[in-house]
Amino acid sequence: MIIKNIGCLVTCAGAYPKKKDDLKDAGIIENGYIIIQDKTIVDVGSGERYKKYLKDDEQVIDAQGKTITPGLIDSHTHVVYAGSREFELPLKLKNMQYIDILNAGGGILSTVSNTRKASMEELEQGTKERLDLMLAHGTTTVESKSGYALDFENEIKMLKVNSDLNKKHPMDIVSTYLGAHAVPNEFKKNREGYIKLIIEKVIPYVKEHNLADFVDCFCEKGVFTIEESRKILKTAQALGLKAKIHVDEIESIGGAELSGEIKAVSAEHLVAASDEGIKAMAENNVVAVLLPTTSFYLMLNKFARARKMIEEGVAVALATDCNPGTSPTESLQSTMTFACFGLKMMPEEIINAMTINAACAVGREKEIGSIEKGKKADIAIFDAKNLNYLMYHFGVNAIDTVIKNGAIVVREGKTVY
Ligand code: NIG
Ligand code: FE
């Protein structure tokens, strides 16, 4: 396949993860071309040199007036769940707080009861529909967390949905076990019992059956403490699983500091992260996964301090946090809007943060995240004349075509796989 005459080719190429000034360089090529053979990018350049690849049987795409980026990578989602939570919207608008909704049996726990009840097929069908939407908005790899079942049997069911859909759907799925998302009702009076279940039963099973690459933990006031989170994630690391951690989403209890201490691959949310926490992340190469749509949706009136993190040398990634409670969206294009106006990140920084840096956050940086020779042919073609235009015109799906593994899976914004 040859893609030629590309108005604005955003390669995100170069050393990774991108930090500080490197984050401002998105490797933009004007009048570019991309040559794809089977599933792989074999050449990238500009001008007429693509012509040497022309043969009769080539598929040629003319991308004049379009912006092309690496397939977007959504590095933090809770895309596997059943039911929806629109009933919480009026409560939120009447100022009921997220943690109060959770403690009243709503929030995460209401999704838990729906997800436990759902059959594997039902859960898979709902998830597939969301993955289709993600693909149609330009996402080609997604990290997917369990955590809406919280018992052994149904957490495993969620993780099996990840591995099943990873085989059946064009999307690549990176699986994360998030048993420590909330304490389930049956363990309300026995937190230690729940943590014991996670540590002694579920994590070893997940490792043995290869059901996840990462283990995550919701470390937050009123959810899991620093000590509990440390214990869970260290157990996972000792078995060879990698650590991610939800921290400082609403209040800082030292979660960012903990991510540095245990050398987690990523720390996520970070709205209330302290100066020391940011320093600990920079020193220990922890990727900051920022989720600005969640700050907006929780009406926190506060966004993560992205500028400070970038200045301190933290590698910043961006994700949707797609989930039924705090960020019901499948579109990383929504994340672009809030990254501009909430986080004050520049368009070049934003695109690096949802491609190559997001690849680092999910441990796939060698295969995906940039348009370079040897990388997988995962490519998003947007109906936008340049990168600034893509981020300036908001609230619509700008996707024209999506290429996954070298094949067209979305055409004129519709899935065609
Ligand atoms: O990332 N922070 C914890 N988990 C999700 C919310 C889950 C929910 O409310 O259902 C989040 O915001
Ligand atoms: Fe989350």
Describe this structure in words.
- This protein has 15 helices and 17 strands.
- Strands 1, 2, 3, 4, 5, 14, 15, 16 and 17 form a 9-stranded mixed sheet that branches.
- By secondary structure, it is an alpha/beta fold.
- It is globular and about 70 Å long.
- It folds into 2 domains: 2-70 and 369-415, Urease, subunit C, domain 1 (Roll), CATH 2.30.40; 72-362, TIM Barrel (Alpha-Beta Barrel), CATH 3.20.20.140.
- The two termini are 17 Å apart.
- 35% of the residues lie in helices and 22% in strands.
- It binds N-(iminomethyl)-L-glutamic acid (NIG) and fe (iii) ion.
- The site of N-(iminomethyl)-L-glutamic acid has 13 residues, from helix 3.
- Fe (iii) ion (FE) is lined by residues 76, 78, 246, 321.
- N-formimidoyl-L-glutamate binds at residues 148, 323, 325.
- Pathway: Amino-acid degradation; L-histidine degradation into L-glutamate; N-formimidoyl-L-glutamate from L-histidine: step 3/3.
- GO terms for molecular function: imidazolonepropionase activity; iron ion binding; zinc ion binding.
- Residues 67-409 form the Amidohydrolase-related domain.
